[in-house]
Amino acid sequence: MGAASLPALPKSFRVRPNCSKRAACPLGQGIACLAMADVSWADGLSAVSALAGLGTAVIALRIGRTANQAAHASNRAADRANATADSVAQVERERWHHEMTPRFDVTITRLGPSTSQASLLLTFEGPPALERLDAVEIEIRDDGYTHIANPAGEPTQEQVDETIWGPSRFKPGVDGASPNGRMVPAVPLELGGWLKYALEESFAPSWNDPSYWRERYVGAPVRLWVRCRRAGHQPWTLTYDVTVTDPQ
Q: Has this prediction a pTM greater than 0.85?
């Protein structure tokens, strides 16, 4: 019986192009080449799949990074917008507070040509939108100079603080004025309403010459703080320098 002939291989099977023995390849070597070809294709497919997966991961990473950058940029823009809105709101509040500043007409009239008594009249004139004030407090300011205590004697710091350094003071005890005549208690006031207080000449302190004191402040204006409060508004502090006039 002659040697058995090798079975024909299907056309779909191909050996690797780099196989140098395919011209005289025995059966075992041919099958080995085919197996190597299959392994080579599997390895190639695996490598392609791995590269595809790596590419997908890189793309996903870039997309995520871009999204994070966009989110940070959006947050920064939102922060800037909020800061701008807060700044605009603050400017608007300040403008509104300024527009709502109370207006007063303040006069001080001497009660007679030869008297040291006077009357302070404060009238609430506006703005109309304010309508009323919950509290109006008046305080007499000093003359603006620095007055220093004497470490070796008079005046002490307490005496300096208690002295009204100016031409006039509120009459102590009248209309609730403080014992030193510096201020009167806060009271509510309606638009168009008025407050009236009794004044008298300030007294020279014990370490000062009375005649020098009177000459020092003759014709000087009475300096005032007027502090106002209204619910829903920041308080206002106003200053007035009011000349004492004779009655008409």
A: no
